[in-house]
Design brief:
The structure is a homodimer.
Chain A (H helix, E strand, L loop, with lengths): L2 H8 L3 H9 L5 E2 L3 E2 L1 H12 L5 E6 L3 H8 L8 E8 L8 E2 L2 E5 L3 H7 L4 E4 L6 H10 L4 E4 L12 E4 L2 H15 L31
Parallel strand pairs in A: 3-4, 3-7, 4-6, 7-8, 8-9
Antiparallel strand pairs in A: 1-2, 5-6
Helix pairs in contact in A: 1-2
The first copy, chain A, binds a DNA duplex (22 and 22 nucleotides) through helix 2, strand 1 and strand 2.
DNA sequence: CTCTGTGAAATTTTTCACAGCG
DNA sequence: CGCTGTGAAAAATTTCACAGAG
């Protein structure tokens, strides 16, 4: 497949595809294009997707369950190994193939299962406490879904997922489209349409 | 509050804070800093968070329910107005204050409720079909949580949330920290730690 | 004096454009 | 030939550094 086609499918410039891929090595064939299977393999290897990453989820509400059942973690090397909840009534209940455990067991389980990544899926007020416990248990990568700012010591990676931000981005562009309150001086960057477009036209990557 | 302090809290450079805020207008006071309340107000206005955005969720599995119950949409103007599911057994069941409706009712409900944003929270195989129905119903902003590529006609904004990508980013940096397979020529950018750090040190925004 | 707002410089990212490989 | 790989140019973003407002 040519860089041109890959670019079209990804909604970016062909030169960018070639430039980016060139950082991984010379995996294309001049005059022909790229072998997609081989490319996938090399990219997976570079990103570490061949690695096995034990993941623990803390907070088994709707979101925690959704994450626990999410197909597609497995394909990328993420393996849910434990679920924790502070609610004693939930402890022992099974979600998928895992029984929910008490937060007190976190240190023991995290160490024994070599948990590399902790996911916080609790209500906001519990998030900092849970983060502290994860850090104490030796977890050095944390993904926070709770709608609150959490702090961790240096040496620990923390990322936050804000489920409302994508909606904000969509609404920002919708308001522009509708001429809701157009005004100058604001940087623009199109709401992207990922993947090939049904109508064959490239996603307009920039407004204006 | 000074740009310096805001920058520290956000984990960025103070000049960037000032430069960015300057695009909104001159809301700071020289020698003093910014009035946080006023700043929040102006930013909200600029981002359109004062606007009301009716949202419909299609697919009421764990993720759909999690989204339906997510606190914090409301604060930013997103109002869940309808839930849809293709499973007849779910239709009529209540989730929060909304009864689940049949997919067939989407066009009617979307138009009557002036749905601005549709959220796809279905399994992957149903996503494209749902996207088509949303588009047909006049929805021009779509957020796709299904782990599959969906295409829409131009004129419709589509964004995709991939719950595994954040884990990938965390694991990428963890492998680097552990010296898993360091290699040169790969662009670096630190896994960010958002918010103030417990230990007072700034999040290392870049590796190397 | 302190801290903003902002030109200018530095850096990074993206795109162009083309030599040359298969 | 067609398409990659990549220097070089262009564009965008980030940072510096400082005049000047409060």
């Amino acid at each position: 497949m040519s860089s041109e086609r890959l670019a079209e499918l990804a909604g970016v410039n062909a030169a960018k595809v070639r430039k980016d891929l060139s950082y991984l090595g010379s995996y294309g064939t001049r005059g022909v294009g790229y072998d997609v299977g081989y490319l996938l393999h090399e990219i997976s290897r570079e990103l570490g997707l061949t690695h096995d990453w034990p993941v623990a989820i803390v907070g088994v509400g709707n979101l925690g369950q959704a994450l626990a059942n999410y197909r597609g973690f497995g394909a990328r090397g993420f393996r849910i190994v434990a679920l924790f909840d502070a609610d004693p009534r939930k402890v022992g209940r099974k979600v998928g193939e895992h029984a929910i455990q008490a937060l007190e067991d976190l240190p023991e389980v995290a160490r024994r299962g070599r948990v590399a990544i902790g996911i916080i899926a609790t209500p906001a007020p519990a998030a900092q406490e849970v983060a502290d416990r994860l850090v104490d248990a030796g977890v050095t990568s944390i993904l926070n879904f709770a709608p609150t700012v959490v702090s961790v010591p240096s040496g620990v990676s923390l990322r936050k997922v804000d489920l409302a931000i994508e909606l904000q981005i969509l609404s920002f562009y919708q308001r522009r489209r509708d001429g809701g309150a157009a005004r100058d001086g604001v940087a623009l960057d199109g709401a992207k349409s990922d993947g090939p477009r049904r109508d064959g036209r490239a996603a307009s990557a920039r407004a204006r």
